[in-house]
Amino acid sequence: MPSKAGAGFLSVVVLLWLTGTNYENNLILGLAFFLTALFVVCIYHTFFNMSGLLIEAIKSSPCFVGDDGELEMQLSSPSALKRPVARENIQLSFAADQAITVDLIEHSTVTVKLFVKTLERGWYQPPRLKVESHFPLGIVRCWSWLVIDQPILVYPKPIAGGELPVVPAAGQDGERLADPGAEDFDGFKRYQLGASPRHIAWKHYARGQGLFTKEYSSYREPRVWLDWDALEGLGQESRLSRLCYWALKLSATQQPYGLRLPGVSVAPSTGLEHKQRVLKALALFGRGAGRGAGKDTGV
Predict the structure, then answer these.
(1) 72: Cβ contacts below 8 Å, ≥ 6 apart
(2) Could you check whether the bond before residue 136 is cis, i.e. omega within 30 degrees of 0?
(3) Tens of pLDDT along 13-72?
(4) DSSP code of residue 7
(5) Whether the Cβ atoms of residue 40 and residue 136 lie closer than 8 Å to each other
(6) Angle subtended at Cα 235 by Cα 229 and Cα 240, rounded to the nearest 5 degrees
(7) Which 3 state secondary structure label does DSSP give 19?
């Protein structure tokens, strides 16, 4: 189809033809016919500039919600063509995004990176990709819309919120923690002003042994667990965002940590691969069995 410049070009041709016809001027008519022929030739050049072009999605890079997801695309001319084809001014863009321009010289292969805004976690399917060309003179437009079968893994947006949740151990292993709300009795200590009357040892006081309070404690597990149940009172996305934040913080310190979500458990470990497993579990939680959404489990 004619581009905006092409519509203006055709308007000039029509005016030249009307002028040449009105004044019976063969020179003006010849110019009008020459420009018309030029326009027709451009149609073929524009079409064959894109015809046979091979576009492949190579890979995508994970990102966080709200960031730009990265897609790596490869453009090439098939080697089966009988003659070398130079492809110029190939424009790639997502809807409402700025286009990037690619040139292929003969049977060359070009790799480009495209970026698209992500709005929610999980497997994000990029919008249709527009492939367009105005080669060679910009007066004819040739385009096509491509559906890319290469989703982007989007992690929850990390949000800092409070201290790292402490997960009580089932037994008496690990670091002992003074916890007034715990149920494990840990002995007596001298009464201090402000202590709860419910914890006062009244039997000791009645025997004249002085005023004591009962002390309770719990134990922290030697391994750090990022636990879904430790963030009660928050919505699903808020919990995932805070767990994502702590996963990034702990990964930076090389401290072993694990993840517990309803139906999903990632055993404590360290390293980049473990970090990616944890972030993937957070990204796909509650999203069903999408593409590549295998559940990470462990003990």
Answers:
(1) 57, 58, 59, 60, 61, 111, 112, 113, 114
(2) yes
(3) 999 999 998 888 899 999 999 999 999 999 999 998 888 888 999 999 999 998 988 999
(4) H
(5) no
(6) 65
(7) helix
Cβ-count burial 109-126 (b if 16+ within 10 Å, e if not): eeeeebbbebeebbbbeb
Name the residue with tokens 């009660």. 232
52: which 2 tokens? 């046979």
Instruction: Kindly list the distances between the CA atom of residue 187 and the CA atoms of 142, 182, 221, in Å, as whole numbers in the listed order.
Output: 83, 13, 21
Contact 74, 124 (CB under 8 A): no
Q: Which two tokens stand for residue 106?
A: 């003969």
Q: Is the pTM of this model over 0.70?
A: no
* Contact (CB, 8 A) for 243 and 198: no
Radius of gyration of the chain (CA): 34
